[in-house]
Design brief:
Layout (H helix, E strand, L loop, with lengths): L13 H12 L7 H10 L6 H8 L8 H11 L9 H19 L18 H17 L11
Helix pairs in contact: 2-3, 2-4, 5-6
Length: 149
């Protein structure tokens, strides 16, 4: 199966993701926890050098969302990259379902108040999609036949 294509590395754990980002963001350089913590601070975040070192050592596996956001700032990527795969998959699926319904006209517009830079939370997208499905299920079929699920 050697077609010359480059395969993406397996990035399941937080440690693997951070090591990958260190390699890609600072190629050929060894970055200390202190240097990375200073970079995060310069970009408006907060992360201790020891905590960063503990992530690289595999001692931290489930940090808070604030820590993930600090990692995103330091590496210049969306912080959700560092979330567990199942959480990201749920976010992506909800977003794709929303976009698909928007394209088909099932959703014509949406106004959000008090949203931050992350946009709509996945829970709200799921709720909106559930409401649409309920409304669709209550409509009689266009052909007059029995309604099926």
């Amino acid at each position: 199966m050697d077609s010359g294509e480059v395969r993406a590395p397996e990035l399941r754990t937080l440690r693997q993701k951070v090591e990958y980002m260190v390699e890609k963001t600072f190629p050929g350089r060894k970055i200390s926890g202190r240097v990375f913590a200073d970079l995060v601070k310069e970009r408006g975040g907060s992360l201790s050098h020891s905590y960063f070192s503990n992530i690289l050592a595999g001692k931290v596996t489930q940090p808070s969302e604030d820590i993930l956001k600090a990692l995103g700032l330091g590496f210049g990527v969306d912080w959700r990259f560092f979330k567990e795969e199942s959480e990201v998959v749920d976010d992506v699926v909800a977003g794709l379902q929303f976009l698909a319904k928007r394209r088909t006209g099932e959703i014509s517009g949406l106004a959000g108040r008090g949203l931050d830079e992350d946009g709509l939370p996945p829970e709200l997208l799921q709720f909106a999609l559930a409401l649409l499905q309920d409304a669709k299920d209550r409509q009689p079929p266009a052909d007059g036949g029995p309604r099926g699920r």
